[in-house]
Amino acid sequence: MHAPDGFINAPVSAVVGVAAAGAIAVSLRGARRELEGASRPGAAGSGGERTAPLAGLVAAFIFAVQMLNFPVAAGTSGHLLGGALAAILVGPFTGVLCVSVVLLMQAVLFADGGLTALGVNVTTMAITTTVVAYALFRGLVKVLPRTRRSVTAASFVAALVSVPASAVVFTLLYAVGGTTDVSIGKVATAMVGVHVLIGIGEAVITALTVGAVVAVRPDLVHGARGLTRKLKLRVNGELVDAPDAAEPEPVPAARSPRTVWITGLVTSLVLAGFVSFYASASPDGLEKVAGDHGIDEKAEEHAIAGSPLADYGVEDVDDDRLSGGLAGVIGVGVTVVAGTGVFWVVRRRRAEDTADAASPTRTGV
Amino acid sequence: MTPSLEVSGLAFAYPDGHQALFGVDFSLARGERVALLGPNGAGKTTLVLHLNGILTGGTGTVTVAGLPVGKKHMAEIRRRVGIVFQDPDDQLFMPTVREDVAFGPAAAGLKGPELEERVDRALGRVGMAEFKDRPPHHLSFGQRRRVAVATVLAMEPEILVLDEPSSNLDPASRRELADILRSLDVTVLMVTHDLPYALELCPRSLVLSDGVIAADGATAELLADDTLMRAHRLELPYGFDPRSVPAAPGRS
Amino acid sequence: MGTGHAHKLYRHGHSPVHALPPHTKIAAGLAFVVVVVSTPREAMWAFAVYAGLLALVAHTARVPAGFLLKRLLIEVPFVAFAVLLPFVAEGERIDVLGLSLSVNGLWGAWNVLAKGTLGVAASVLLASTTELRELLLGLQRLRLPPLLVQIASFMVRYGDVITDELRRMRIARESRGFEARGVRHWGVLAKSAGALFIRSYERGERVHLAMVSRGYAGSMPVIDEVTASRAQWSYASLLPGAALAVCLLGWIR
Residues in domain ABC transporter (chain B) (predicted)? Predict the structure, then answer.
């Protein structure tokens, strides 16, 4: 999904870039609190100073794990995108930071994703995936019985939804600032459809990975804190129990109704997208996509994105109507989600600002 | 003369109640090289983390050159106690060797030519001066371990604490590191399982077992005491007889 | 994404471009791309001039054309997308070789291809003339939040270490006769990923200990500060400056 330069026009890129910078600034503050959570017993000093090494190592992990190939069938393989995984393992703020840093370095070091498109890429791939995945994950973990299996199941759903959600946001950005006049219905159908497929792969891998971590070090799964009775910490190779002191809840209880609400909205939205996709594009087209391209590592969504689009192009008018309706649904839904997200972030930030107004942290980018 | 390091009555329990240290007492004179021996789980790491105040909150005191370890003097304590961790990759976290060595002194406020001079001197002492601008991950393991020692030397510590310095080194690197350690004029506390290395470098040894100092004496004598060795799960390598090796020369 | 990330684009050299302070190069590169993106797509000649400007920079930096072109391959997925645009876009259509194509789609395809390619080329030039370390210093100098720069430095420092661990885990798996061939093997691979996360996180904790032991209290000491003279800034601004002039001409005509 690494959008290149020129895909989204300059004014929209700039606005999105500023928004992304704001979200990163908020995350920089939030991450300090998140990483403070697993503080060492009796350790002198905690909080902010742990952020850089831990988030840096997690970013390096995300970077490395994107190279782990998951074979799908003969010759094709997929890999993790990592937004949902990062959010669940280290929390949404740290997740946003880690994935954003990975994207930044990919753009600067490997020319992967345009410099002016960085804001767009961060918004779709770092912010949307982590926020959606985390909100969904927390909501589900609260509702489901408190077991390890629930954590795995919640990770599955969170990752499954996060990928098409990111496609939806991209479509929205394209609708506002796209440089070519393609009907938004077509873009939405193609993007969401294909990303549901990718999302399934992402979901399976994320759930298995989170399951593997929960089995060994449940304390390291940020989103599952509070599920374990006693935390273990490793002090230079020795397993040591952490104090029973209450962990700061990453999402305060007061906010949970909203979390559940977002969860429901996003789920229905994506379900709608999924169903409509099946209704509009012929199943043959979908199979052809899977057959021709698989979840190919390199081509990924870009190459695949073309196929159903082309497939769609020869469909008749009925589908146009359908896809128009779909675009409407998605557009409204995304606006609500984005609005809520902004509100949530702003509120959080305001609370933060009053809490430590004296903090000299730089928030600009 | 005040001792470099004085530990007295140090006891520590982790918050869950697991107690790792049960009253540790010892003191190191300035310039001494001492090995800290002990089986796995004896509390060696816990003890080391107390020396620069990373772990606190138990009873007893740790004093570094007269300065008690505590919140009040933490920055100074961390400058005086240089810990070289087991994995050099953990220790070398900056993009280049030079910046890594400069990290400690710079954090203490040094800058400009003074900082450069400090870096050069520290790297010179471990024979790594020409690797100054290399990224650490391009170095061999032995070289990384030497740079790790330099990062700590750059802070001009009162006492150098090494955690398993000889682990993973090939014989040549192991010997080079021994030469370097011998050439230093700081107090050295070396936590190790490598008993021949302890004998080679440290005239004196401490045996930490079950959270207390079980023995304190000349390395050669301790290693030759079969009963003591067996009681604390310490074993010499096959064919190694401490009686047949000249003991480490003390410093004059 | 893919194996390409393992390679570094940097090419060692002593050209005037290499010698520029990193933040001036980053700023110039970004400004150039912004100008390119803002250029009206109908001004086709402008894009040719941009390409010429980049070629000039590449020549000054002694970056071989082959190297630059090979790196442009990263764009291929978007070329596929661009090729589709004329078929699916709305609006007035024309017939080319019996195919009904959208005029708007053709312009769109050209737009994405031209701007995307120039963007990648500019990024490649930046990456191939600026060392990793310098890029980080440059970003720091450009007032990126220090914490973000720190995270990026740690990522850069430990990216190789962790990729190496991943490789060792794969060798260990393969040495025991395991080869991932299909979806049913995902469990094993995911366990590797999980183990890798735990190792990374614990390494982060150890690194933190090592940092604290050397007096770290939340902010990195400033060891290197890159500075740029006025002359260097004006030299670096030649590229975006020329591009801006071209862009303005493009809007006027």
Answer: 5-235
Contact assessment for residue C172 and residue A76, using Cβ atoms and an 8 Å cutoff: no
Residue C172, min C-alpha distance to chain A (Å): 15
> What is the C-alpha to C-alpha distance for residues A115 and A223, in angstroms, rounded to an integer?
32
Q: Please say whether the beta carbons of B21 and B38 come within 8 A.
A: no
Domain chopping of chain C, boundaries: 3-138+228-252
B18 interface with A at CB cutoff 8 Å = yes
Residue B175 lies in a domain: yes
Indicate the residue of C144, C180, C201 with minimum beta-carbon distance to A71. Answer: C180
CA C157 – CA A65 distance, rounded (Å): 16
Quote the tokens at residue A116: 């002016």
The string of DSSP letters for A127-147 reads IIHHHHHHHHHHHHHHHS-SS
What residue numbers bound the domain in which B118 lies?
A: 5-237
Q: Are A280 and A330 in contact (CB under 8 A)?
A: no
CA separation for the pair A82, A88 (Å, rounded): 10
Q: What is the pLDDT along chain B (252 residues), one digit of tens a residue?
A: 789 999 999 999 887 778 889 999 999 999 999 999 988 888 888 899 899 888 888 888 999 998 998 888 888 888 899 999 888 988 898 888 998 899 988 888 888 899 999 999 999 999 999 999 888 888 999 999 999 999 999 989 999 999 999 988 999 999 999 999 999 989 999 999 899 999 999 999 999 998 899 999 999 999 999 999 999 888 888 888 888 877 666 554
On whether the pTM is more than 0.80, the answer is: no
| E strands in A150-228 | none
Which residues, 6 or more positions from C137, have their beta carbon under 8 angstroms from its beta carbon?
A: C22, C23, C224, C225, C226
A54: contact with B, CB 8 A cutoff:
no
| Domain count for chain B | 1
Structural domains of chain A, ranges and CATH numbers in brackets? 10-38+53-233+252-355 (1.10.1760.20)
How far from C12 is each of A190, B208, C63, CA to CA, in Å? 43, 52, 10
CA distance A133 to A114: 25
- Does B250 fall in a domain? no
Alpha-carbon gap, residue B123 to B130, rounded angstroms: 8
Neighbouring subunits of B (3+ Cβ pairs under 8 A)? A, C
Taking an 8 Å cut-off on Cβ atoms, the answer to whether C158 and A60 are in contact is: yes
Flag whether residue A75 sits within 8 Å of chain B, measured between CB atoms: no
Which residues of chain A lie closer than 8 angstroms to C107, CB-CB?
Answer: 180
CA distance B242 to chain A (A): 30
* Amino acid sitting at position C46: A
Judge whether B90 is closer than 8 Å to chain C, CB to CB.
yes
Distance, in Å, from the CA atom of C170 to the CA atom of C166, rounded to the nearest integer, reads: 6
Please tell me which residue of chain A has the smallest CA distance to C123. A111
